[in-house]
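input
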Amino acid sequence: MAKIIEPQIASAPTPPSSLIEVDERASQDQASKYKSSSITSSVLDYEFENGRRYHAYKAGSYPLPNDEAELERIDIKHHVIMLLAGGHLHLAPLVSPMKILDIGTGTGIWAIEMADRYPDSLVIGTDLSPVQPKWVHDNVRFEIDDVESRDWTWRENYFDYIHTRFMIASISSWQAMLQKAFKHCKPGGYVELQELDPRFVSDDGSLRQDSALCYWSRKICEAAEEYNRPIPVFTEYKAWLKEAGFVDVQQVIFKSPTNSWPKSKLLKEASKFQLLAHIEGTEGISLGLMTRGLHWKAEEVKVLMARLRPELKNRSIHSYQTIVVVFGRKPDGTDVPASSTAVSGCGSAPLTPEKPFINPCSRPSPGENYAERLDDFSLQDSDRRRPEAVSQSSTPVVTMRPAPAGAK
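output
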């Protein structure tokens, strides 16, 4: 034990040695938060490109940055989907899951909240970058790992619940990834995908095909395709879960408005944060993909961003992106219809085509600084049509339609 040299101050009393007991395991416990790859200088030696910071571990395999601006965008998107999903971290009907895997954990915000909601569980979050908080619950562990690796490090039938969210341009083959998820999910366990289709669309023709929003939608998908990280259409995930072997597969669709054009208070609130994520984060998403996949110059990307921002703010354009939540159960020898199970811990009715998932419960905002920045955006309010929240689909969906002409 190292010798402690006391300050040479005659009037200062010596505190009793037992006043604060040192936890000798502290540094070891913290280091164990990261398992698959040790935190070495090579992992932390981030790459910088066009003014943005990117991961070092398996450099180049993921085209989005990992700097503070991107991490903040991830947290804002977490708030958006929590608003849209009525405050639910998951829609699969979980009952006391013991082992949970969060693939592509990012800032770790979902994993941390999930660990808080299920204190008896172990939540493992994986990512290519060690950017998660250092001090977290004892039942949270972060691992530097690549979901694209040929073999996962955990044993088969290990996890009660496997989760992904917003893995845009991250997966080369969703079918292959879901086969691994099926292999490592326990019988009776669930896999849930909470994914974004970034293509901007509208239901009323207010989004023109020659707009910057549509042009960006086409180019970002082309870039991802060239980068070998194709962006699926939101309708594809459900079939892939079934092909992988999951049963009781259900799908819930959310329309995430670009700005605050909807009449619905819930959607208007969510869209304010969605706009913030667009304005501050779309350039980061675009730079890596378009410069690497399409070989654009950074200046060309920034010119497109300058064209994009006015349309993002324009309330006469009723555009939105689609968020799809799909979950399925690994068979365990029993056959319980999905329609007889309810979303855990929320008191809501079962998810069925007749009873879509619409639960507009309120949640606190991420912080006053976000609200202040939302006020900076000048939205155009030239269109008087007021879309409202309705449901009109055989698939559980949160959707919107314009009110009759002349409605106030």
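quick obs: Confidence is low (pLDDT under 50) at residues 5-20, 22-32, 337-408.
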